[in-house]
Amino acid sequence: MSILGWVASVFSVSGTLFNAKKNIWCWPIWITGNCLWKYYSIVSQQWALLLVWIGFTVANIYAWREWYKDLKIKKGDK
Questions:
Q1: Rounded distance, CA 30 to CA 9, Å?
Q2: 30: domain range?
Q3: How many CA atoms lie less than 13 Å away from 24 in the CB half-sphere?
Q4: pLDDT of res. 75
Q5: d(Cα 54, Cα 39) in Å, to the nearest integer?
Q6: pTM of the predicted protein model
Q7: Cβ contact 28:36 at 8 Å
Q8: Tell me: the pLDDT tens digits for 2-41?
């Protein structure tokens, strides 16, 4: 169980670093980390924490979609 927390932390920190570099890969990395945190929350029966990670996942999906639309506009794609 402890290793899961460490792996999830690595994904979360990596997602933040990719985001700081404005790399679109931050979103799938963050979503993967969020899924690991959701699993951790379920196994440890931390239901409030599970709701937080579900919210973060929804926000990440929304932000990824918005970034993708902005990239298409910058490239001239419609």
A1: 10
A2: 2-75
A3: 10
A4: 80
A5: 11
A6: 0.84
A7: no
A8: 899 999 999 999 999 999 999 999 999 999 999 999 999 9
Distances (CA, A) of 36 to 22, 45, 59, 60, 69: 23, 14, 16, 14, 27
Q: Are 36 and 8 in contact (CB under 8 A)?
A: yes
Phi-psi region of 23 (alpha: psi -120 to 50; beta: other; left: phi over 0): beta
Q: How many domains does the chain have?
A: 1
The per-residue pLDDT for 35 is 97
Within 13 Å of residue 58, how many CA atoms lie on the same side as its CB?
Answer: 6
CA distance 37 to 56: 10
Rounded CA separation 70/29 (Å): 19
Q: What is the pLDDT of residue 1?
A: 65
Q: At what angle do helices 26-43 and 2-20 cross, to 10 degrees?
A: 160
Return the structure tokens found at 61: 């999906």
